[in-house]
Amino acid sequence: MKAGRFPLARPRRNRFDDFTRRLVAETSLGINNLIWPIFFTEGTNTVTEVASMPGVHRVTLDRLAAHVEPAAKLGIPAVALFPVTPMEVRDAEGTEALNPDNLMCRAARLLKKEFPNVGLIGDVALDPYTSHGHDGVIRDGYVVNEESVTILTQQTINQAAAGVDIIAPSDMMDGRIGTMRMALDEAGLLNTRIMSYAAKYASAFYGPFRDALGSGGMLKGDKKTYQMDPANSDEALREVEMDIAEGADMVMVKPGMPYLDIIRRVRDTFAVPTYAYQVSGEYAMLMAAIRNGWLDHERAVMESLLAFRRAGANGILTYFAVEAAERIKQTYGV
Ligand code: PBG
Question: Which of 200, 220, 224, 329 is catalytic?
Answer without folding.
Answer: 200
